Amino acid sequence: MTPASTADDLTRAGHALDAAGLVTAFGHVSARISDEELIITPPRPLGALAGGKFPHLSISASELPADAPREAWLHTAIAAIRPDVGAVCRAQPPAVAATAALGIPLVPLHGQGALLGPIVPIFHNSRLVRERAIARELAAALGRACAIVLRGNGAVTVGATVPEAVARMWILEETAKLTLAVAPHGPVRPLPAEEQAAWARTGSELLNRIWHHLTALPR
Q1: In this model, does residue 2 exceed pLDDT 70?
Q2: CA 80 to CA 90: how far, in whole Å?
Q3: What is the pTM of this model?
Q4: CA–CA separation, 178 vs 34, rounded Å?
Q5: I need a labelling partner for 70 at 20 to 30 A (CA). Which of 40, 95, 127, 133 fits?
Q6: How far from chain centre, in Å, is Cα 52?
């Protein structure tokens, strides 16, 4: 059985991502419910989610269930090598797409940006992640990071919980917006490492504040 709170978090996540303009017709969020199993939002617009049953994914499965998104491979691949990850968020933030197209790396330019780590890796294969092999390559490129940009194909963020993964997607887009605003005017300078570390120590507190902000946005 899926805990009602987890299903509710996935529904709220879909609505929040849609209200924040981080997804369009596509996007999905998963949550770990055991060492070997995830649940994931179905392949429909996230803003239209109305609760109910969610597809279940076995982390070690060789096939996806018929009711799961075709890119669900990326969720199982990340979960398989990152036992610390309790949730994965897949979205299409527009400013992030622009920075990837320009080849501009995303680094912490403001305090909240430090909650993504010192630099966000870029996955340079723009194909849809509909094969296990590509998903495993993506998971390897993510490594121990909290976010990864998929050039020409959106982004992925992770967290210990659904709120953390979703909040990081919002921070990723805000970081990209700030980067695009400052890049034409001079070098993009990240915050000093010691200041990044100070912000990183506030992780769960700030991520949950952002989650509450996002879930309060009007739909």
Answers
A1: no
A2: 17
A3: 0.96
A4: 37
A5: 95
A6: 22
